[in-house]
Amino acid sequence: MPTTRQEVHVPHGIDSISKIIKFEAYLTDNITTLQSTHTAIGNNEEDYAIASWVNTTHVVISPGRDQSHLTSGHAIIEYTK
Question: CA-based angle 43:68:70, to the nearest 5?
Fold first, then answer.
């Protein structure tokens, strides 16, 4: 993950998506795993949130603060064609 509020766009390689049914994304530092749908800790949600979403071409992860300790992750996408 980036050290600033930069979105990470990862192509998912799925052709002909008609509708996204369910999307889950998980990030890890190999010790702790976070579900990144919109996790917030503390008083200022924007500074701590990790937002994620999927479109017809990419999975997008958008950290609210430095998340460089999160070194890998995976996404589960349920969809129809």
Answer: 90
